[in-house]
Design brief:
Order of helices and strands: EHEHEEHHHHHHEEHHHHHHHH
Largest sheet: 4 strands, mixed
CATH class of the largest domain: Mainly Alpha
Structural class: alpha+beta
Protein name: glutathione transferase
GO molecular function, one term: glutathione transferase activity
EC number: 2.5.1.18
Bound molecules: glutathione
Organism: Buddleja alternifolia
Distance between the termini: 42 Å
Low-confidence stretches: 1-6
Helix content: 40-55%
Number of helices: 16
Shape: globular
Radius of gyration: 25 Å
Number of domains: 4
InterPro entries: Glutathione-S-Trfase_C_sf (IPR036282), Glutathione_S-Trfase (IPR040079), Glutathione_S-Trfase_N (IPR004045), GSTL1/2/3 (IPR044629), Thioredoxin-like_sf (IPR036249)
Mean pLDDT: 94
Length: 395
């Protein structure tokens, strides 16, 4: 599932001592609790659609609730609730639908009518599933809970174009995942009952819900010794641990991830585009070297040629704003550097690399609409300081 690649800093809980946020000021707020599976449904929907900037999280301490929450926000006094366009909306199943339908981002429903019909059936069953599960804890747990997981196993057999209920990830997975995750842990721990045993589709579904690649952030100023000794002797980032091997070098990794994991292809089929992509990737080192060297002299004169190269390259294919028309691994390779040069040259040399280069300007504008990129952007203040020290010898 599409997940942000940078960990969001979660706001702290509001309790009975906290002031309310400035209610109905136009901000969209998700009143939530990080432990609540119902709220988690809406949290997943928000994150999947890349709405971290559009929907602000407001966590409520349910054990010590602020009085204003019931009085001014949501009279049922439960989470989740969404404040949007001057209204408050509750009920997690309604909210999955509401957020999916009223905000940008990838849709959580396929077009296929057979899948839509099955989605309705499964979502309608989710309340019964929960009721039966909770009552099973008081009775013959393994037998009663087992029947519910058999229901899911059978449902997962219906579409085989992916590991999820409708093949691809959808609202149905969002509705069930927070609960199945909790039941799996609880039944294993307390009843020693593995819900995936004898249920291969359920096992594959749970596997499919995991993030495919976990991020491990390494502090380069104070590197842990194990990183060099046990993992990656080059002692650099990035490196990828996959299938018992460690692979390094960002350009090799872009290619490796693109070819070894599911998801949209980052290299078009068109042979002309493939040849051009190789040419551009091979030239990246030269661009970097020339721009970095220019920082010690006059970048406006010395680095202009590199930005002209990018401007001309962007003219080559006109079926989209990116280097190969559509977003490709050339963009993944270049954009982190274009972004940094843009910020640094503007800030330190008052040089706007997009001025007189309309393709480059449009490129950066379009790039900023792509969540997968936006979530990885650098901190401009840190960058300026870092580049000054590293390339200009100042501190
Ligand atoms: N049917 C509601 C259930 C929400 C719910 O029960 N939330 C719990 C936290 S997990 C809650 O707010 N409990 C507080 C209470 O019941 O007073 C939904 O789907 O949104």
């Amino acid at each position: 599932m599409a997940a942000p690649s940078v960990q969001e800093v979660l706001p702290p809980y509001l309790d009975s001592t906290s002031e309310p946020p400035p209610l109905f000021d136009g901000t969209t707020r998700l009143y939530t609790n990080y432990q609540c599976p119902y709220a988690q449904r809406v949290w997943i929907t928000r994150n999947y659609k890349g709405l971290q900037d559009e929907i602000k999280l407001v966590p409520i301490d349910l054990k010590n609730r602020p009085a204003w929450y019931k009085e001014k926000v949501y009279p049922t006094n439960k989470v989740p609730a969404l404040e949007h366009n001057g209204k408050i909306i509750g009920e997690s199943l309604d909210l999955i639908k509401y957020v999916d339908e009223n905000f940008k981002g990838p849709s959580l429903l396929p077009d296929d009518p057979a899948k839509l019909k099955f989605a309705e059936e499964l979502i309608a069953y989710s309340d019964t599933f929960l009721k039966n599960m909770y009552s099973s804890f008081k009775g013959d747990t393994v037998k009663q809970a087992g029947a519910e997981f058999d229901y899911l196993e059978t449902a997962l057999h219906k579409f085989d174009d992916g590991p999820f209920f409708l093949g691809q990830f959808s609202r149905v997975d969002v509705a069930y995942a927070p609960f199945v995750e909790r039941f799996q842990i609880f039944l294993q721990e307390v009843w020693k009952y593995d819900i995936t045993s004898g249920r291969p589709k359920l096992a594959a579904w749970i596997e499919g819900l995991q993030d495919k690649i976990k991020l491990v952030a390494i502090n380069l100023q104070d590197r842990p010794a194990w990183y060099k000794e046990k993992l990656y002797p080059d002692n650099k980032v990035p490196s990828l641990e996959h299938n018992g091997k460690v692979i390094g070098e960002s350009l090799d990794l872009i290619k490796y991830i693109d070819t070894s994991f599911e998801g949209p292809d980052l290299l078009p089929d068109d042979p002309a585009k493939q040849t051009f992509s190789e040419e551009m990737i091979a030239y990246l080192d030269t661009v970097q070297k020339n721009v970095y060297t220019s920082l010690k002299g006059d970048p406006v004169k010395e680095a202009g040629g590199e930005f002209d190269y990018l401007e001309t390259s962007l003219e080559k294919f006109d079926d989209g704003p990116f280097f190969l028309g559509q977003f490709s691994w050339v963009d993944a390779a270049y954009v982190p550097f274009i972004e940094r040069f843009h910020i640094f040259l503007q800030e330190v040399f008052n040089y706007d690399i997009t001025l007189g280069r309309p393709n480059l300007a449009a490129y950066l504008e379009e790039m900023n609409k792509i969540d997968a990129y936006k979530q990885t952007k650098c901190d401009p203040k840190f960058l300026v300081q870092y580049y000054k020290t590293r390339f200009m010898g100042s501190s």
